[in-house]
Specification:
Blueprint (H helix, E strand, L loop, with lengths): L1 E5 L2 H18 L4 E5 L6 H8 L8 E5 L1 E3 L9 H8 L7 E3 L9 H15 L5 E6 L23 E6 L4 E6 L1 H5 L3 E6 L5 H8 L6 H8 L3 E7 L12
Bound molecules: 6-phosphogluconic acid.
6-phosphogluconic acid binds next to strand 4.
């Protein structure tokens, strides 16, 4: 586990983009890059979009999605497309929102598409956010998504009265690297628990069981509860 603590928000975005750029540039073959949703990664995607990297061997996909069409303001696919995918020559897989089929069938279709376009030897790197409730991707506490098999699943999140679709715990666990991007004081308590090995939260369960390398890029506010020995 590696923890990169950055001062302020600008330094955080620079450092996170730098880490991701290093990983992409250092990869030997095809790359499968899972993108985090929400607000935290947005300045990072803007910076990556300006990087002169060879994106042709990268497939960009969404670690999770809200159950909305891509042109909806809450869409992670729309956000990723606007800020990164339309600016680089990577292959981009937006989530196939289809109200006719519903969340479960659409998640299955996405899983099939991911399996189809991702080279067997692709290095899977997944960017992840984390909520103050300890969710990551759309693996929310006390939901059936936590025990789902396969690659991608649909999940009713009662706490938010909404459908979500998400990469499964298993698909995330065996990535090459998980890069958690966490900022803000409201996540400090959960981050400290997760980094200290607690599996009380989905993010902690993932970190505790993943075969992947795990990197945290965090700002000082989110790191405020980490003990000195861990930073
Ligand atoms: C989403 C996410 C989710 C997000 C966390 C943190 O669709 O919202 O993928 O897991 O990463 O909720 O969100 P913020 O970055 O907005 O704090």
């Amino acid at each position: 586990m590696r923890i990169i603590v950055c001062g302020d928000t600008d330094h955080f975005a620079d450092r996170a983009a730098g880490h991701i750029k290093e990983r992409l540039a250092g990869a030997n073959g095809p790359i499968s890059l899972g993108l985090a949703g929400g607000n935290t990664p947005q300045p990072i995607y803007r910076k990556l979009a300006a990087e002169p990297l060879d994106w042709t061997r990268t497939v960009l996909w969404l670690g999770d999605e809200r159950w909305v069409p891509i042109d909806h303001p809450d869409s992670n696919s729309g956000m990723a497309q606007r800020l990164l995918a339309e600016h680089v020559d990577a292959r981009f897989l937006p989530f196939p929102y289809d109200p006719e089929s519903g969340p479960a069938a659409s998640a299955m279709r996405y899983a099939e598409a991911l399996a189809e376009v991702t080279d067997d030897d692709a290095e899977r790197i997944v960017l992840l956010g984390m909520g103050s409730d300890g969710h990551t991707a759309s693996l929310f506490p006390e939901t059936d998504a936590l025990s789902a098999g396969g690659i991608y699943t649909a999940t009713w999140v009662a706490a938010h009265e909404t459908w979500r679709v998400t990469a499964t715990m298993g698909y995330l666990q065996n990535a090459a690297e998980l890069v958690f991007l966490v900022t803000g004081p409201d996540k400090a308590h959960v981050l400290a628990d997760v980094v200290n090995g607690s599996d009380d939260y989905p993010a902690g369960q993932l970190v505790a069981t993943a075969s992947a390398d795990v990197t945290f890029v965090v700002d000082a506010a989110a790191a405020s509860r980490l003990t000195d020995s861990l930073t």
